[in-house]
Automatic annotation (TrEMBL):
<feature type="transmembrane region" description="Helical">
    <location>
        <begin position="143"/>
        <end position="162"/>
    </location>
</feature>
<dbReference type="Pfam" id="PF14329">
    <property type="entry name" value="DUF4386"/>
</dbReference>
<feature type="transmembrane region" description="Helical">
    <location>
        <begin position="169"/>
        <end position="192"/>
    </location>
</feature>
<protein>
    <submittedName>
        <fullName>DUF4386 domain-containing protein</fullName>
    </submittedName>
</protein>
<dbReference type="InterPro" id="IPR025495">
    <property type="entry name" value="DUF4386"/>
</dbReference>
<keyword id="KW-1133">Transmembrane helix</keyword>
<feature type="transmembrane region" description="Helical">
    <location>
        <begin position="18"/>
        <end position="41"/>
    </location>
</feature>
<feature type="transmembrane region" description="Helical">
    <location>
        <begin position="198"/>
        <end position="223"/>
    </location>
</feature>
<keyword id="KW-0812">Transmembrane</keyword>
<feature type="transmembrane region" description="Helical">
    <location>
        <begin position="61"/>
        <end position="87"/>
    </location>
</feature>
<keyword id="KW-0472">Membrane</keyword>
């Protein structure tokens, strides 16, 4: 005799509370993630020479950036739960997939941040420019790998938003575009030289669609989410 496993039911929580959790997490991540990304942008430079000096000079700022990345990682897990709770009652499997993809991306982000910690330790311990540059390169490569997973998450999330009667479909469409833009940008960086026009266009598309789609959804959760659900 065989049977089927009982369906997974999202944890019970008031919809408005879930929406507020999702909204606050999204907006806090946008601030922390933006600060962290900008803080590490110029550390690599044009080559290995001077990498240790750049890292040493940015020591306190890099420490804050590492902390900000870890805050983002925690908020990512919180948001993954909130999104699963929000969409899980009607689209459980797809909502669970979106959540697990986000958690997987978060694990990759934490691994990438570990390379930033290594780069900082190399600089503080009098290591070589080559060793510090290698650690920064590993951070970038690992983060780029994670963004491919994040792109898949956005595609699933966008699909959820489009199909959900209680959330704005146009935001879901923008999030879908953001997901495909992230994926295209990640693939292009494997074959296109830095500074190429294509990468500039894709980076701009990623930035615009991410802000409008993800941040827009966060704002919607804060203002409207759960009030009529």
């Amino acid at each position: 005799m065989t049977g089927t496993a009982p369906p997974v039911v999202p944890l019970s929580a008031p919809p408005r509370d879930v929406a507020l959790t999702a909204g606050v997490s999204t907006l806090a991540m946008a601030v922390a993630g933006g600060f962290a990304a900008v803080s590490v942008t110029n550390l690599a430079g044009d080559g290995a020479a001077g990498t240790v000096d750049r890292i040493t000079g940015a020591g306190p700022l890099l420490g804050l950036a590492i902390t900000a990345f870890l805050v983002v990682a925690v908020l990512d897990v919180v948001l993954a739960w909130a999104l699963w709770r929000w969409f899980g009652s009607s689209r459980g499997e797809l909502a669970a997939l979106a959540g697990w993809l986000r958690v997987t991306y978060t694990a990759t982000l934490v691994a990438a941040v570990g390379h930033l910690v290594t780069a900082l330790a190399v600089a503080r311990d009098g290591g070589t420019d080559d060793a510090a540059q290698a650690a920064l390169g590993q951070f970038t490569s690992t983060w780029q790998l994670g963004l491919v997973v994040f792109a898949a998450h956005l595609v699933v999330l966008g699909t959820l938003v489009v199909r959900d009667a209680g959330t704005p479909a146009w935001l879901g469409a923008i999030i879908l575009v953001a997901g495909f833009a992230y994926a295209a940008d990640g693939v292009a960086r494997l074959f296109v030289a830095d500074g190429a026009a294509l990468l500039t266009v894709l980076t701009g598309l990623v930035s615009v669609t991410s802000v409008v789609g993800e941040v827009g959804l966060g704002v919607w959760f804060l203002i409207r989410g759960g009030k009529n659900r």
